[in-house]
Every structure is written in C-alpha cells, then in structure tokens.
Amino acid sequence: MAEHSPSPTPERAIYGFVLYVATYMLFGLYISWAYLPESWLTMLGITYLPQRFWVFAGPLYCCVTLLFILFCYVFWNFLKTPPLDSISTLTDKFSRKAPEELQANGRTCGGVPPLGDIDIRIVNKYLYDK
Fold first, then answer.
1. How far apart are CA 24 and CA 6, in angstroms?
2. Is the distance from CB of 117 to CB of 94 less than 8 angstroms?
3. Is 116 helix (H, G, I), strand (E, B) or coil?
4. Are the C-beta atoms of residues 89 and 124 closer than 8 Å to each other?
5. How far is 130 from 127, CA to CA, in rounded Å?
6. Helix (H/G/I), strand (E/B), else coil: 60
7. Which pLDDT score is estimated for 1?
8. φ and ψ at residue 97, rounded to 5 degrees
9. What contacts 124, CB < 8 A, 6 or more positions away?
10. pLDDT tens, position by position, 3-41
11. What residue spans of 36-130 are helical by DSSP H?
C-alpha cells in the first residue's frame, strides 16, 4: 500500500488542469449570460435561463452568506470562551499551584520562587490596575 504524499503526481496534474479549464469555462458562460442580449442567446438556441436579477443577486448572496458565517463563527467563539477570572482558563490536570505567599500578594521574600501557576486575578491586577 503506497503512502499518500502531497508531491505532484500525473493524476493530480490532470485533475488540476481540468478544474482550471472548467473554472474558466464556467466563468465565461456566466459573463456571456450576464452581458449578451437575450435575443442573441435565443438565436444560439439557449432559451431556458434564470432571470437577469440573479446576475447580481447570486454573487451578492454568496458574499453576504460568507460574511454571515464568519460573523457567526467569531460570535460563537466569544460565547464559548470562559471569562478571564474563570479558573478553567489557566488550570488543568497538569497545573501546579504557586506558593501561598506568591498567591497572597504577588511577591516572594528573597530568591526565585518555585515554578507554579499564578492566579489570573493577580496577573490581571499587576497588568491592568496601575
């Protein structure tokens, strides 16, 4: 069984070229539908087409939908993020409590304190309460 790799293969090159050509053909059809008069299209035998309203409304709906999805994604992340003073923002099963003297006033008496997690309220006090 061969491993999958991102390196170019002949099959990928063919698929990529077909998608490249198909994209430009579809864009050409869209532009011709948007700009050619209806009489020219019926002369070519193309009689069943959507209304011209969709020339502008279709791409506009797609862009607005994309922006709406982006807004909802950001809003959902804000809803799911715990507040800054929540204990779940900094602690898990691997967390270590800082020494009591560091937790109480944010300072130690002499030396470097042992490694530990400082409470978020103390960090916010020193960072933002000046």
1. 25
2. no
3. coil
4. no
5. 8
6. helix
7. 55
8. -70, 140
9. 84, 85
10. 777 777 888 889 999 999 999 999 999 999 899 998 998
11. 38-43, 53-80, 100-105, 120-128
